[in-house]
């Protein structure tokens, strides 16, 4: 493993949309990388104007990432290297970035509903790593016991439950397209319950969402290898099974993950009806970022 200060941040990014709805960033200090993150914006499933929706989601995701850059850079400069940020301070930085992104969105798009986005974030805090996650974007940390996945319990198994419903509808005689329309209608309805006691919490237009993020502190002295990615890239592991999680993690750090991305895009294009490999969208934005913290 390269020394902490010399290790580069490596990223692989691609989108088939007009504007990418994933965003990512990092904070570098004198001793190396101090924080890294991925934001995955969500296009409304029932959007009437996909072009406008794409512009709005991309704007919010990249604004959120930009304000995270500002907030984390300031916070990490103020913290002594022996202590680092606390979990409460990190959640406060996330909420301030969300608030500023929402204000900027409102200034540009008026009364349009604020989009939503996941966030997977890792910060070096002295001898520890703070892993903060809301939503279903993967966050992996290499430890002496192997790669640890930090999850948001709200979202565990959610997509698989939806796909199981699709399989049941198919078994009942519906066509693949009709079954997808039914389950996606249900998904659109569930998204309208987001950030309420009856739904899931996600970063968007509600100031309470950051309090529902999953925070985990791991005792991992530097250097430690980490990876954050959007669920569009995780498809290489599941459901397409092109590589293992460990292989994808290593390839991100080696700068060779583009081969897996190309294979994934080929596999997605070969199954546009989503019948051979069931999934909620034919393709998705792909972002993977590897760093040594």
**Overall morphology:** globular
| Count of DSSP-assigned helices | 7
Q: CATH homologous superfamily - what is it? A: PPM-type phosphatase domain
Please identify, by name, the CATH architecture. Answer: 4-Layer Sandwich
Kindly provide the radius of gyration, computed on alpha-carbon positions and rounded to a whole number of angstroms: 19 Å
Total strands? 10
**Main beta sheet, described?**
5 strands, antiparallel
SSE run: EEEHHEEEEHHEEHHHE
Estimated structural class = alpha+beta
Can you tell me the CATH topology?
A: Phosphatase 2c, domain 1
- Number of individual domains: 1
* Strand arrangement across the biggest beta sheet: 1-10-9-6-7
State the separation between the terminal residues, measured CA to CA. 12 Å
Range of strand content: 15-25%
| Helicity level | 25-40%
CATH top level assignment: Alpha Beta
- Flag low-confidence runs: none
**Could you report the average pLDDT, rounded to the nearest whole number?**
93
